[in-house]
Input
Amino acid sequence: MRLRDILSLAAHNLRESPLRTALCALSVAVGSGALLLILSIGLYGRKQVDVGLQTLGVSGLSVYTESGHAGTILSAALADEIEQDVDGIRTLMPIKAQSGTVRVGHTTEHAVLLGADERLGEVMQMEMLAGTLPNAWQCANAEPVAVVGDDLAQTLYRRTNITGRQIRLKVNGTDRYFTVCGVVRAQTGAFGGMLSAVAPHLVYVPYACIASQTERTDQVFVQCISQTDTASVSSQIEKYLTDRQQVRGVHVQNMSGAVQTVQQLAEMGIGLFAAVGTVTLFVALIGVMGSMLAAAHEKTGEIGILLALGAQPHDIRRTFLLQAVLLCLFGGIVGLAAAGALLHFGAALLLPEGRVFAGLLILSTLSGAAAGLLPAVRAAALNPIDAICK
Output
């Protein structure tokens, strides 16, 4: 039989049972569309994680000590000594945090005040929207300047660029006026409510405005030189503080490694979502296989006549395979088109690239061939005389 004849016969078989064909195509459409939607949810989640981590600007090493331990205090002055004596460090910065409030007029917002110095832009990745970060002179002289997030600027002044404006901060229990020198992209808003309960707003001020150089610091952020083994730098810092400076309860955390771990978890989430969607498509293909087996049983007599007239078993096999492929191809197109339209017009999710659509359509088609393989083989193996007599 010619390919055109096989294609015509397969299409004719599909038209003979329109209800069954429609239901099978619908099941494939639901399966392929669900796979696309689930995959889009996973991609959207990974994108949000990447954006959130980038906005937070965490990388490098974080050094901190447990409270309550005797011994030398991990202070800002000691942090500067670490930078000079430990190899592989590009720059570091001590951080001192305390909760407080920000007030402008009758508007009051809770915030976490972070004491930092002129190395803030080198240690943390921050997107400047207006103004500048505190300079070395301002940090050394404890000038009352502050860097706020754009969400806080909008809350206080209904605008993003509020450089030069004054805000009243409660520092160490005392209200002080600070001049806004810079506005950055809000670092807590990237994760929504996950951080809003802990740190609704972050406000950066010179370290000396919160603590002295000899006072215990909360953390020391360390950026290593490129191509440097962070694990080696981490062990050097811990050994330096523990053995030489007699600092107790030292912990060094690899923030870059934590970021990579979160990204790997996001990748695993996408894989899990894809697996769930694949199961959905597989269930739909079981229905297609059952439908094709029923169709082969109903057409036993016709198959026997075709074989008696000279059709070869491989012609019968190709007919049923092509029938299953056409069914799943049509269902896949409908399902992916519907899911794509939903993603484009009705959902704020990430629309995958065109190659993802093509890959899913090929998957649906190949799955249709797999679902139609058993019915095709069984139909081709029929004996012409037995098939005609049934």
User: Anything to note?
Assistant: The two ends are 24 Å apart (CA to CA). The chain has 13 helices and ten strands.
